[in-house]
Structure formats: structure tokens, C-alpha cells
Amino acid sequence: GENVEQHPSTLSVQEGDSAVIKCTYSDSASNYFPWYKQELGKGPQLIIDIRSNVGEKKDQRIAVTLNKTAKHFSLHITETQPEDSAVYFCAAPRGGGTSYGKLTFGQGTILTVHP
Amino acid sequence: SAVISQKPSRDICQRGTSLTIQCQVDSQVTMMFWYRQQPGQSLTLIATANQGSEATYESGFVIDKFPISRPNLTFSTLTVSNMSPEDSSIYLCSVGLQGGEKLFFGSGTQLSVL
Predict the structure, then answer these.
(1) Alpha-helical regions (H) of A26-70
(2) Of the candidates B109, B105, B111, which has an alpha carbon nearest to the alpha carbon of residue B4?
(3) I need a surface site. Which of A6, B33, B43, B62 has the fewest CB within 10 A?
(4) How far apart are CA A86 and CA A44, in angstroms?
(5) What's the DSSP call for residue B88?
(6) 3-class DSSP state for residue B61?
(7) With contacts defined as CB-CB under 8 Å, which chain A residues touch B44?
(8) How close B16 comes to chain A (CA, Å)?
(9) Strand partners for B6
(10) A33 touches chain B (CB under 8 A)
(11) CA B17 to CA A4: how far, in whole Å?
(12) What phi and psi, each to the nearest 5 degrees, are found at residue B82?
């Protein structure tokens, strides 16, 4: 099965700085990589995802990059704001290929943005 | 996406008892899943809730401990049976949309077992 490693486990930045979270995966057949944001007391929220046929995807202040050769993908948040403070999870398809809802999650990164 | 409602949102239970968690979706979905998030940990897939047939469990999870029902395409229940403190977790209902590729979560049920 897929194995996903996520770093760092905690990340503290000043408001306006950029934040980068990295994940590596083990199954070269995996072709879909989502990122989730979880606020306290809430379920994970899908914030951005990328398929293996592209190297980068952006959505306003959030971007995801994918390096298939190295089997890693990263979340980039620019111009961070206090409301970006949350736990972020990366994920990859549990059995490789397409997820069909079955994901293996990274260990999570606690992001704190200081005003 | 879809609106996914879970009940209860939280509960405190005594060891040895059982709790049934309900999940209601505002549209018909083919793929529905249950995940567990232990305190301060990541998410782990428990099972796929199959409509009209038995759920498909992942390694480490069994039907006797986590029976699941899926009577229709908008509703599912997860029961945590014969609870112990190790079952204290957040239990999350989720649905796969857009061909099943994108996974969306409910708000979760925070369970504490004393």
C-alpha cells in the first residue's frame, strides 16, 4: 500500500510570510494528491488537489507542486494570514492509481501564523 | 461538494457500551466511507460503506467491532461496539465525488470513552 510522509510536523510563521509543507509518497502509480485543512472541532476541508499529469496548480494564495520523479509534492501558502492557522494534511491514493475515496494521509502539519 | 451531516457531534460513553453514529448526505452518492482520527493523529480509513451490501473493511478493522449500515444512497451509520478508552477518537463520514476522486468530509463525531 501507499506510504505518505509529511514534514514539518509544526510550522510557525509571521503574518505575510510564505509557508511550505512537503510530502513524499511511495507508490509511483499514484496519480492524485489532495491537501486538506482541518480547523479545531471541524472535519478536514479539501483545499487544493493535483493530478499527476500536471506539475503545478494554483488557487489564489495556495499552490501545489508535484515532482513525480522524486515522488514528492508540496503545499505553498503565500501571504499567510492568521486564519490560515490550522492542521494541514496531504494524502495519496491508498492503493496507488486513482483514489476512489480511499486515501492514505500524512501525519499532519500544525501551521501557526502569528499576527 | 455536498453537505454531510453527522450526529452526534460529540459524546462521552462508558466502556463496554456501544454508540451509533449517523451520517446524512444532501444528495445521492455512490461512494461513502468512514475514517477514524485518533487524538492528535492522522486519518485512517475504517471501511467503505456499500449500499445494499456488506461494508468493506480495511486491515485492522472488523465488522463485529464497527458494524456499518448503508440502507440508501444518502445515509449510513457506523456503530462502535463494546467500547474501550482506546476507541476515543474522532469518527468521520466522507463521500467521494467527481467520479469518486475527490473526498469530502463531514464535521465528525468526537467520542470519548471513560
Answers:
(1) none
(2) B105
(3) B62
(4) 10
(5) -
(6) coil
(7) 105
(8) 26
(9) B23
(10) no
(11) 35
(12) 45, 60
Rounded distance, CA A73 to CA A56, Å?
A: 9
Question: How far is it, in rounded angstroms, from Cα B1 to Cα A47?
Answer: 12
Asked if A108 and B42 come within 8 Å (Cβ–Cβ), the reply is yes
Q: Is A58 on the interface with B (CB under 8 A)?
A: no
Of A42, A102, A108, the CB nearest to B107: A42
Cα separation values, A18 from A11, A76, A95, B25, B40, Å: 11, 7, 32, 36, 25
Residues B40-50: what's their mean pLDDT?
Answer: 93
Residues of B whose CB is below 8 A from A89? 42-43
Written as one letter, the residue type at A56 is E
Backbone angles phi, psi at A61, to 5 degrees: -85, 0
Please list, in sequence order, all residues whose beta carbon lies within 8 angstroms of the beta carbon of residue A98, skipping any fewer than 6 positions away: A31, A32, B100, B101
Q: Which pLDDT belongs to residue B114?
A: 95
Q: Is the pLDDT of residue B23 over 90?
A: yes
Beta pairing, strands A109-114 & A10-14: parallel
Question: Is B104 an 8 Å CB contact of chain A?
Answer: yes
Grid cell locating B53: 451490501
Q: If you ran DSSP here, which 8-state letter would residue A83 be given?
A: G
Q: E strands of chain A, at which residues?
A: 4-7, 10-14, 19-25, 32-38, 45-51, 56-59, 62-67, 72-77, 86-93, 103-105, 109-114
pLDDT tens-digit series, residues A57-109? 999 999 999 999 999 999 999 999 999 999 999 999 988 777 788 999 999 99
